[in-house]
Amino acid sequence: MSDSHGQRSRPPEEAPEAPPADMRLPTGPNRATETGRDGALPAWRRMLRRIRLVELASAVILLLFVAAAVAPGLLAPGSPLAVNPVDAFQPPSWAHPFGTDESGRDVYTRVVHGARPSLLIGVAATAIGLVLALVLGAAAGLGPRWLDFTAGRVTEVFFAFPGILLALLLIALTGPSPVVATIAVGLSVAPGYARIIGGEFRRVRQAGYVEAAVLLGHGWWRRFTGHILPNALGSVFVLATLGLGQTIVWASALSFLGLGTPPPAAEWGAMLAAGRTYLEVAPWLTIAPGTAIVLAATAATLLGRSLEQRVRES
Amino acid sequence: MTRLDDGTSGIGAASDTTTHASRRLLRVQSSPSRHRPLRRAAVGATAIGALLLAACSGGTGTGSEAEGPVEGGTLVYASGDAEPTCLDPHVGGNYPQALVATQYLEQLTALDENREPVPWLAESWELAEDGLALDVTVRDDVTFTDGTPLTSEAVAANIAHLQDPETGSSTGYLALEKVEDVEEVDERTARIHLSEPDSALLENLAMPWLAIQSPAALERGMEENCAAPVGTGPFTVSEWNRQESIVLERNEEYTSPDPAAENTGPARLERIEWRFIPEAATRYSALASGEVHVIDNAQPDAISRAAEDDAIAHIDAPRPGASNRIELNAGQAPFDDDRVRTAFIRAAAVDEGIESLFFGTAERSYSALSSIERHVHADPAPFGTDLEEAAALLDEAGWTAGDDGVRTKDGERLTLRFPVSTNQSIPAEISLFEQIQAAVAEAGFDVQIQQLDLASWYEALAKNEYELVSAPYTRTGPDVLRVLYHSDGIEPAPSGYFANHAQLDDPQLDELLDEAARTEDETERGQLYRQAQEIILGGHYILPLYDQQNHFLHRAGLHGVRTLAVSTPTFVDAWLED
Amino acid sequence: MLGAVFVLWAAATITFFAVRAVPGDPAETIIGGPGSQAGEEALAAARAEYGLDLPLWEQYLRYLGGLLSGDLGTSYALRAPVTEVIGEQLPGTLALALTALLLGWALALLLVRQAARGGRVSRVLGTIMEVTAAALPHFWLGAVLILVFATTLGWLPSVSTPDLPGLILPALTLAIPLAGFLGQVMRESADDALASTFALSARARGESPAGLFWRHVLRHAVLPAASLSGWAFGTLISGAVIVETLFARPGLGRTLFLAVQGRDVPVVTGTVLVVALAYVLITFAGDLLEMLVDPRRRRV
Q: What's the family (chain B) (predicted)?
């Protein structure tokens, strides 16, 4: 039923009325595929054959970023903070592949060293947002009535705030720092996530298999972890991967307002905000960190999507 | 005739700060200035003031300079400063207010090319022998735009308004500290009684924050007066669309141009649309595409680009008062130790950074005062850089090198907190601070730059949570030194504000500054200020960077823009080519 | 209804106390902004005039009392009634946000449609475009749009004007990242729908791909995105803070930013209330839309 290259065909699911329930659950290796064309090949060959170019490219890019985050010194031995005013605003060259910035710092080195704080902001802020959203969504969608009510109201109030206001207030209260920026961004994306996840929970809850689980007398926690969460995971996945780029960008918006990661730290968002002043004189200042953000976000999204698809298909 | 910089000066032409301060009053820039001699409009024979004149760059087409000024038209001005919350510069008193108020309010005095006070709304004045009373006689042919005549009563009402705590004046209030009361001698003469002689008073009266407004209008109450102050200026406030623009209409009955004006009657422009465009790149883009005629707060990269554009001209009008400098908080450790301050200055190399970050548009300063001020004393000697000497000084002071490169003493790290206001420091300046941070790290200083909004920034200063700070201060005359470095300035105002950020507490300096403020003889006054500046510079309390940058860019088709006492532009002479 | 009132109350309360907790003295804002050198008398006068000398709880109760009678208080910095300040700024921001919302939707649909038409390559390309769009910071995108369309081509004004041409660049700046996000969310459902049995059966009935997309797939795709409209509006307000600064456009976003910076409590709380109200209304509209599109929801 699913061809070896995992084209769009999928188990027929999602008929408007009653989705055939548990077919999508990742309940271990599905025997069905083994009867397919690849059946005769060893498992690792099957895996390999199924790896697509997109996945490979995404994985390589992400690995590169992770490597940069873990051991930036390997990829760029220089210091990201070493200034050299005489060398300011050098366009890309062999000596400075991404050019130099307004203080003569090497942009390549800064992009590499910026991977750790940037990805940390991206991952941590997204995680904060998602966890908050999951808790609120779960409480609202599945808990007892009073909890549902409370969580519902909290989400609503949360929502009613423009995200940036939360960030502005938090920063005004504590002063700007990367940690505060991360929390602020996490808080400001949480309502959006909560909304999507809440909607997803609602959709899944109405599905036949959950109703069946209710009939079987499963408790809400078991229903949640066993049925609802795995089925809503697709959206969560997309949100998480998208969130990576989005949160870094939101943090850079704070830098634009002068409230983000304090200078001169090498962080993609802050670099982007600082470089915009010289958009016309030195466009490479924004192109390099901007491309890094987009690459990280795109690679994470594409890979995320593929993995999710695979989970569904298997 | 106003002195002009030599015509070959490109952006950042070096002129000798130490000796030719007054020559640099005026820098006219045209583009492309490096290749073509400037064509300048002639300044009227009476031209006075720290003024500049827009040069006409190789304009082609109709309405060239030769054909003379054109009547009418709407000028669009784009300001990068914050929109004032009150258009009456008596209330509070900041630069954005001064910029716009220059168009509709005027002062008793103006400053000439040597920055000496000359009559404006005041026709003449006379100082009593003991220096404790100043008789100011106002002109008899001036009427406020609401029909109220200019009289001695108006002078008294304005000073009372400035001194009324309800007004909440900062700048004006401070400038009138020594004024005890005002007596109306006759219809046109007001006698200002002083608690002690005040040699800075006439200079201070030239500031827009002490502008003379219609007494009848002041009585309307703060809310109304904030929305539309009434003065004697070439324009009147007609509309204020908040966050968007202020519309100024020509004052058809105008009779009181400043002494340097070439135009003697009403302004040539019919209307000014005063817009607020906070983002520098947008502002420049609007100028380049012709949507606006003038922009202020032009950023260094834009100025350097404009130099290549025939259609855009440049005015460099450094603000008076203090230079842009970093102050070292000598009121607490570690900067209470002269050796540590000296070490910091030895380690802080800024010249190359200023050159590259400001694209050659800013010149290094070695003075506490703006280069346009009288009695400015600049001395590069205390500011030489030498890393080895810095290290030796720190060793001597007991700060020993730590494992991570940061020095320590008794377990304390050599940390310097540096709150930076994003409202006051432009990106290039913040980058310069980063470079200083990197430079002094070599000597073992750990500078922590904290970017803060204005309110939090003042809070940090009020709580004494800083070792380094850069705070602009605009005022007319060298008396600004007393405001900034007299030990009285350490005592915070009830709001927590204090001006002496270096927390310089030196009885000898106090005495010099007090004495200078009482001394009317200009030569003697100059000597006192020179000694005062030697103490300030020699004690390594400040690191001067450059003048307070104040660049305007305008369309080459706009002529006759000059700046006044605090380097705000006036459009009384201005006209637009068709 | 009661829920909406609760939301408004809670939003106002949280904002009120949060802004008051921020360092900085509101009395200084009243008399000319931070760094004022005003004397104790002036500060005391300002405090008395605005009731800042009362205990905090009493100020709060007074504020709530004012709210009930439709009085949002008086701005510290602007010395004008908050209702007036917001009334002046709201239309501009609403026009901007709604235009951006519509543009965002249109672009997102276009992207999803385009991607649904082709094979895997076009889907990957579509994803890349969407993710890129979603990862574009407003301040950068806006600056580039100004550079291209205003400075270089001279087609549109760089400074926002009240007329339509002045609205295009700011709205686009907000719409493009939004379209990326909406597109991503929609695509998930669109893919599911395309692969589902009803799509197969529709194809079997001879429905054209275009017809299939517009008549069937779209319905599924729009659902999760529609439920996001209220949220999208919120992010647009956040984006407006930046876009209004960039394009020098008067509006609520800039007002809010300046008010937070100036500790102008009444304006911040008032703005939050208005945004909360708009959110409540738009969510309601989104729910209605959802019900129209999704027959299942009508039963509930």
A: Belongs to the bacterial solute-binding protein 5 family.
